[in-house]
Amino acid sequence: MKGRWIYAAAASLLGNLTSFFHPAIAVIFFLLALFLLKRNILAKKSAGILIMIYLALFMRCELAAEHNRTSLDGNESEFEITMKESAKIDGDLLTVIIELADKKEKLAARYKIKTETEKKVLADHLGTGMTCRVTGTLQTPSTSTNPNSFSYQKYLNHNSIFWILELEQLNLSDCSYRKSSPTLTILKIRETGIQYILDHFPEQTAPLAIALIFGDRDFIDQDTIVSYQKIGIIHLLAISGLHVGMLAGMFFLAGIRAGITREKMTSILLLVLPLYAVLTGAAPSVLRAVFMMLLVLLAKKLKVPIQLTDVISIVFIGYLFISPYIIYNAGFQLSFAVALSLILSAPIILKRFSVSYAAILAVSFVCQMAAIPILLWHFYEVSYISIIANLIFVPLYSSIILPVVLILFIFDLLSWGNADFLLNGFEKLIGFLNWIAEVLSAIPNSTLVLGRPSLIMLIIYLLLIPAFFAGWERSKNKKVLIKSGVLPMLAILIDYLTNVFTPAGEITFIDVGQGDSILIKLPYGRGNYLIDAGGALMFDTEDWRMRRDPYDTGKDTVVPFLKSKGISKIDKFFLTHGDMDHIGGASAVIREMRVKSVMFSKGAEISKAEKELIVQAKLTKSDIVFTKAGDSWSKGDYAFQVLSPFGDRLGGVYTGKNDGSTVLFAKVGGLNWLFTGDLEEKGESQLIRSYPNLKIDVLKIAHHGSKTSTTDSFLSAVKPRIAVISAGRNNRYGHPHNDVMGRLRDYNVQVLRTDKQGAVTYVFKGNSGTFSVQLP
Q1: 79 bridge partner residues
Q2: Structure confidence by residue, pLDDT tens digits, 386-425
Q3: How many helices (H) and strands (E) does the chain have?
Q4: Which residues in 263-291 are b (16+ Cβ under 10 Å) and which e?
Q5: pTM (two decimals)
């Protein structure tokens, strides 16, 4: 099957997908095999081999699924654990992957550090390979509670981890090194090397050096990570084929200069490269590059000719067979997709460019096109300026940053830490590049948000993008190139139009924990409205307890959810009142979305947090609107009216924040909706006095089910059929209160709860729709 291993790779992929995703993929495989046979692309013998590979991968995945389960029942409390990696300490939280000494099962361990002194002791002395006796409780990892959101449970399960171990104590007196192995020795070297860089390199250079030499990005400032992600150059902060090739080349040349023969250096590389993979954390991109190079070197040593397409295909098949669940990993998907596109297309395309920068631009474009479906599936957006950013950064990183980092690290080691004068100069360059990345990432509307593509849309991408590459390779004139260039643009246009102009609308109560955030998306792109953005109360805490990237409801939950729906613009953003569990995530929404109008309640006194949001909204050129009872608008058959607040006073008494909440009535999808913010008893009484004929179908229960809201008189007046409660799991306030739940039962109201069922969604067309919940 010389030159045709790519078909074997396709067969192995389809076998994997058949097992993990849908048996109907088997039909696709056999139709593809028949097509290749009829076109005489494959001989019958080769087709038989493909079927065997397909079945082998299918059976391997079935076997993996059968054995991918826990041996624990969840009631265990005493454990003997071994640290499988360096512990990560962020503020007062320590996390580490551990292995049970007796059962050989991996767990994700967490420990809440109690004092600053304990933090320093653990950071200095807790190491990879250490075995400890500990006590703790086993918890099931959290699953996704919003549509399209990241499932930590699935992520861990795909890595054969089924429990989180919450440690009660972690005493170093109960820990010791008991066993040693080559892998453990390499990991200790990695740990030592990372610490050396932290101790000897400047502030901005150290995290970059750790990422490029040891493959660990955890030390890079989160703002820098975000900047690189936004402009599509985050791959430069990961070890890839370029890094492996450059390191291997430097090592090979150094050996030749030292008088070692080429044959011996090839043999040495065959031994060193696997050790390097372990040393750098064995990320999918590293393993792909290392094993591709090993295969090339081995073929060269044995004098067996081999094509690069065969190399990447064989490595792909082997990787899937050894680790079937890696198919879910975004890094694995991107690494192989981009590498394959470059191997297939770049050599042909690059022959047409005599100018180096034009060639780099072409390569960047190939990579971007190949990555689009994967980026949209995992991150919901692609960068407009990534090609330009890569044009700037790729040559700098490949020709300057990476080799200089390696040379400085080696020189600093050999000079016993006396490379400060060189490192300080290099620090200025890194600071300048990070500044450029921040400037580029701050360009407004620099990403195209398309949302997570449907299965049909994925197929369209996977057909049109390769067709574009094929057309580009064969084109001999500009007309053919332009025609083929339309194909990926057509895929993006179809994706955009089907998302924006869908006949279906939705109302989703986003699970933001103890808070509120509600999306109203009208059909045919007629309007996107957001009511609140969740949030959490911020408490003063000691500096040593502060996390590098603390959880932010807006940034980490609301914005990703909106982007996954293909939403980049909010027409009206209602902030019902100034409590942080309603507006704490608003800053991220205003920063990341194009918000046309930010709607504040013309009720109680404006809080400090609301004043800060007003300033931010003005800077982003959003309209600032103070809304009150009587404001209304309509979009086609959909009508909206603000029912409260009634101004600065309520019933002659100055209102508090809760009773000053914006209350919105909507006629959408054949139902009458009432969104109540944190309205309490006094506000509810005023509402039913002012609107005696108010009748609704769906009630957003006020104040998360507090006993001070949802009174008998209110329920009797508005007569809801369905109630939605947005509250946090096991929240400290006891929401929803038993009295409220009792009253809802008395009035035969169907209750949907985000704390029990995750996000609650109503999808509608015209005047009919259906409710669904994220968790069964």
Answers
A1: 134
A2: 888 888 888 888 888 988 998 899 899 888 888 888 899 9
A3: 28, 26
A4: eebeeebeebbeebbbbbbebbbbbbbbb
A5: 0.91
